[in-house]
Design goal:
Distance between the termini: 62 Å
Strand order of the largest sheet: 1-2
Number of helices: 3
Mean pLDDT: 82
């Protein structure tokens, strides 16, 4: 019984810590989206995708070994 109680407390603590660290994900994502050091040409993602436009997770073209299909 003591072991089960300890397990429940540990799981609860892990959950609280995970939620605390996940809270800033949106702000971090916005900062990365507007960071010019991530791109190879010195431009931010926001330069070509203002306010996240045209980002829907679907590819419109595919490239294999530098050639478009």
């Amino acid at each position: 019984m003591k072991g089960l109680r300890l397990l429940v407390i540990m799981v609860g603590l892990v959950f609280v810590v995970a939620v605390a660290f996940a809270g800033g994900s949106v702000e971090k994502g916005k900062a990365l989206f507007n960071d010019p050091s991530l791109g190879t040409n010195g431009k931010t993602c926001n330069y070509c995708h203002p306010d996240g436009a045209q980002i829907n997770g679907q590819k419109s073209s595919y490239t294999i070994m530098g050639r478009k299909l």
